[in-house]
Amino acid sequence: MAAPKIINNTLRGYVTHFVSSGLGRWDAVHDAATGTSAFTVGNVRVGVGFLSFGGGRYDIDRSFLTFDLSNLPPTGASVTSASVKITAVTIQNSVNDGTADLINLVGETTPASDSALVTGDFDQCAAVDSPTELSTGKDLSGISGTDVLTYMLNAAGLSALLGAFGGNFTVGFRENHDIQDVAPSGGGLPPTSGNNALTFQSGQLTLVEYAYPQVI
Prior knowledge:
Blueprint: E1 5-19, H1 26-30, E2 37-39, E3 44-51, E4 57-68, E5 78-93, E6 102-107, E7 132-133, E8 138-139, E9 148-152, H2 155-163, E10 168-175, H3 176-180, E11 194-200, E12 204-211
Antiparallel strand pairs: 1-2, 1-4, 1-12, 3-4, 3-11, 4-10, 5-9, 5-11, 5-12, 6-7, 6-8, 6-10
């Protein structure tokens, strides 16, 4: 096995979507093909929220990190341990409705480009319904600003990572209400307001235990 290898992300960003002005129904946001805005500068945000004014509004932020693995030969490679690390900046945790307040890695993500994000990537942050989770979710109640969060890749995550050798590995982050397709505080129009969200800095992929043929 080679020594641990750290790879910084080449792209980071998120796509947000909301529906308001009396149309703030959960499914209209969760199942949308296109987001409202896309961001690739500053901190990255992932989460869900709801507001009671303006007839009701739900919003969802789905984020992406891309890592360049083009210099890792795919043939004959193996990975048995790897992680994705991010550094928390701000945390919001005011949705307490019985659904676990988790942030987790998901895949397979298929943004239109590995160098930029567009609003059309909103529904490309893994499967819209029942996305594959690539790690164990982190509970927002246990996170503080500046905490370094380490997501160890599970079997699905390692398989996705290995399949990306020789190209780009892009992971998504989604909040658990979004992953489970559960409207914060129930269905219909939001009765109050709240947010479950995490903003974080750029990420690092660490190949802890891996092997690949030497390029001569």
